[in-house]
Structures are given as C-alpha cells and as structure tokens.
Design goal:
A: alpha+beta; DNA polymerase, domain 1; about 35% helix; B: alpha+beta; Uridine Diphospho-n-acetylenolpyruvylglucosamine Reductase, domain 2; Uridine Diphospho-n-acetylenolpyruvylglucosamine Reductase, domain 3; five-stranded antiparallel beta sheet
Chain lengths: ~160, ~280
C-alpha cells in the first residue's frame, strides 16, 4: 500500500492505495464519484476523462499513486450550487447526447478544448475531441454544443457539409 | 482490467532511480505511462517493480545547447508541441507531435517514454532518426550517447540496457528548414498505418538538403536515403518530388496486418513521401 493525498473536486483526501489501482477506480470505488465512467478500458474511448492539474487525462490510463499531491476535477465537480457549468448547459440545450455514456468524458474534454482555445473552429473542435468516442450521435450535436458554449454561433451549413 | 501487483517506487533524483533500477530484479520504468499502462492492464507484462520517473524534475523541459536543442526525456508531448525552440529548430518534431495520439494522451505521455517504448508505429522515431538525434543514456557507471540509427534495434527494442535510463535527446538545430509529418490512419487518434517525416532546406526553389524518415515500414523507424539523395538539387515541384519519392520503399520491410499488406504499405510510402516532401518544401 502507498499513501496518497489528492484533491478531488475541491476536497482533500488521504488514502492508502495499492500501486496498481487506476485513478478511475480510485475515483469510483473509493470516493464514490461514479460520474466518471469506465468505457473501453483500453484508453481509447475517453469516457473516463478528468482534469489532472488543469489538463485532461484518461483516468483509466493513470495510476492513483501517480496523482499523489495532484488536483483532480471530475464531471461531479463542475456544477456549483445547483448551477450547471456552461458546457453542461450547452450539452443540455443542444441535446448533445443520446445514451449519455460518453457525456462525462466528452464534457471534460470539451472544457479542456476551450481552455486551450476559447474560440475554436469546427475543425479544431473535432480535432480536440479526437480522443473521445461517441457511438450514438455522430458528433453533430456535440460539436454544436461546444460552439454554443464558446459563445460562437453554431454553423449548421458547415456541420451539414462535414457530417 | 487491472494490472498484476507490483511494488511502486517514485524517486526524486536520477541517481536514486538508477539505484532502484539496478537493485530491482524485474523492473519497468514508467514515464507518462500511456503505452505502459495498457500493457500492464492487459497483463502483457507483469513487472515486480515499477519505477516512476514523474517526480524527477531535472528530466523535464527543452533547452538551447548551442548547435543543438535538448529535450528532456520526461517532457510531455503537450509541452513539446508548444515549445518555441522545437518549432524553430526541429519543426518536423512539432508536426509529428501535433498528430500523435489524442489531446489526453499528449497531456500525459512523454517524449523520452515514447521513444524508449520503440513502437515501430510510434510517431516520434522517424522524425528523431531523420534529424540525426542523439540519445543521452544514463547508467550507474556514467552517461553515454547513442546515435538515433543505433538506438532503435528491433520491435519495442532499443540500445538501452536493463539498468539504463534515457535522460534526454539532443537534436541538431535546423532553423529555416521546412518540415511535414504525413500520417495515414484509418480512424481517429490511432497509430499510423504508414507515416513519413520530411525536413527539407529549399534555396531559391531548389531542394538543397533533404531528410526523410519512415514510420511503420519495418521493425524500426527507417531513413529513406535513396529519396534524400534523389531530392538534392531538384526543383520543389510535384514532378521532381514524385520521381524522387518513387524509391521511398527501397530497403524497407513493412509488416502485413489487417490495416494493409506489405505491398500496400510500400505503395503508401511513395505517396506519403511525395505529399510530405511537397508540404515541407511549401510547394
């Protein structure tokens, strides 16, 4: 066992963990933060994306012990006082989901995209979401949601063209 | 899937890491872990000890060293991508990192880790080889430097001994060269079926110098030397570059798999080389 201290969604936790424990399992099974999901378990799909020290990572591809001293934000840490994060609102407004399984990771990665580039083009949004798979929507409304959250008019013609 | 049990060590100095490595019977180094963790989860490997280099600050960052730039082995891809020294002096590295995996992996994965993993489909080997990078390797007895062409030995196999750690990569400066990394994939954020790294120096419309590296055309990254020689002195035109690129597959031994057989890859190498060189030359 290795002792780690991690800040998750603003709260500090100290725990003994097995070195082999993945961050996603630590979040879900120790902290009960089941908002972050395990999708593919092969670090392909991005459903488990969280922010580690301000940048998006796939939490199934990080050991909990590597995060000692770090700061993690999950999908559960976005809303404050019942107020959704603007990206969550945009996903809601644009109906950027069908089954919803990819949504936690998609929202975390979409926020990372805008952190790097507040006004991305549609192409930049699609490239920024490259590591997140959605098997229902064809990405159409997800891209619109990110455009909406970035305060840019969504461009139906451009989306039609690339769809 | 969960890795098999292992002991975890997170030294804060290179000396401590080398010590831990020499004492452990069956150890693996973890850098960013983006290749190692899938391997451990699928239990393709089950080391007794995992040594994490993530707490060794001296292995991180890019610095100017006169006629070369030096990229610390633990520098994350995302930091290499935005580094102005890399962009100015080794632009083909920037272009390759730009399309390496996906943003999340680029936030965790490291320059040295990816090179030491030596996946023949990895995106950094061909650019490093094309630029004559030098790999600085530390062992308990001291430091040695390995040329890129000697570093890659075989599939997932490098010149690193079991008790050695790759600490940094020196890349001779090539300011003013044009560069491009042309990567052919079937689906998003994957390893290339074939990719080509090209760096060229153009003088008055003529290619004065050219360097071309191939990804996934053999068990290691390869130089397309015949193409390089054929390009020198040629105009940066589609016709001339197409003719030179025709020999891109010379001396290669590409794999056959579900993504394409060896002949298809040989064909791809010529097409992608033409595209990469033309883009690098700004033509």
């Amino acid at each position: 066992m290795t002792k780690i201290t991690v800040t998750v969604d603003g709260a500090s936790y100290t725990d003994d963990v097995e070195p082999r424990m993945l961050l996603v399992h630590y979040l879900r099974e120790r902290l009960g933060k089941t908002g972050t999901v395990v999708g593919c378990d092969t670090s392909n799909c991005g459903a488990c994306t969280v922010h580690l020290d301000g940048h998006s990572v796939k939490s199934c591809n990080v050991l909990a012990v590597q995060v000692d001293g770090g700061e993690v934000t999950t999908i559960e840490g976005l809303a404050h006082d019942g107020e959704l994060h603007p990206m969550q609102s945009a996903f809601h407004e644009c109906h950027a989901l069908q089954c919803g399984f990819c949504t936690p990771g998609m929202i975390m990665q979409a926020i990372d995209v805008l952190n790097d580039n507040p006004k991305p083009t549609e192409k930049q949004i699609r490239e920024g979401l490259e590591g997140n798979l959605c098997r229902c929507t064809g990405y159409h409304n997800i891209v619109r949601a990110v455009q909406t959250a970035s305060g840019q008019e969504s461009l139906p013609a451009a989306i039609e063209e690339s769809a | 899937m969960i890795p098999a049990q292992f002991e975890y060590v997170a030294p804060t100095t290179l000396e401590d890491a080398l010590q831990a490595l020499s004492e452990a019977g069956d150890a693996k180094i973890i850098a960013g872990g983006q290749s190692l963790l899938p391997v451990l989860r699928m239990r393709l490997n089950a080391p007794e000890v995992v040594i994490d280099l993530g707490r060794i600050e001296s292995l991180r960052g890019v610095r100017d060293d006169g006629d070369a730039i030096v990229i610390g082995a633990m520098t994350r891809h995302a930091d290499v991508l935005t580094d102005p020294l890399v962009r100015e002096n080794a632009f083909v590295i920037t272009k390759a990192v730009e399309v390496l995996a996906d943003p999340q992996v680029r936030h965790r994965g490291t320059f040295g880790g990816a090179l030491a993993h030596a996946d023949p489909a990895g995106d950094l080997g061909a650019p490093a080889l094309a630029l004559d990078a030098e790999f600085v390797v530390a062992g308990q007895g001291g430091t040695r430097t390995v040329a890129a062409e000697d570093f890659f030995v075989d599939l997932f196999t490098t010149a690193l001994e079991d008790t050695e750690i790759l600490t940094e990569v020196r890349i001779p400066k090539r300011a003013g060269w044009g560069a491009h990394y042309e990567k052919f994939v079937r689906v998003a954020h994957q390893w290339p079926i074939v990719a080509v790294a090209a760096a060229v120096r153009v003088e008055g419309g003529t290619i004065a110098e050219a360097r071309v590296g191939l990804t996934n055309m053999g068990s290691t990254p390869l130089r397309a030397r015949a193409v390089e020689q054929a390009l020198v002195g040629q105009p940066a035109t589609d016709e001339a570059v197409r003719a030179a690129a025709a020999s891109a597959a010379e001396g290669t031994n590409p794999p056959s798999d579900l993504n394409g057989d060896a002949d298809y890859r040989r064909h791809l190498a010529t097409v992608l080389t033409r595209r990469a060189v033309l883009a690098a030359a700004g033509a």
